Amino acid sequence: MAGDQKAKGKVEQAKGKAKEAAGRTVGNERMEAEGRMEGARGDARQAKEKAKDTFKH
User: Which domain of life is it from (predicted)?
Assistant: First the structure.
């Protein structure tokens, strides 16, 4: 289950970066902001899973 959450975090980070870059390319500030938000959500999920792993061991 933890691996699944880590994978979701990586996917969110990648989607966020792609959406942010696309928004920047076409000049769409809303899309760019959504991409940053999605990337941050992925970062938070990764951090949470790392913390859980730290306390397991």
Answer: Bacteria
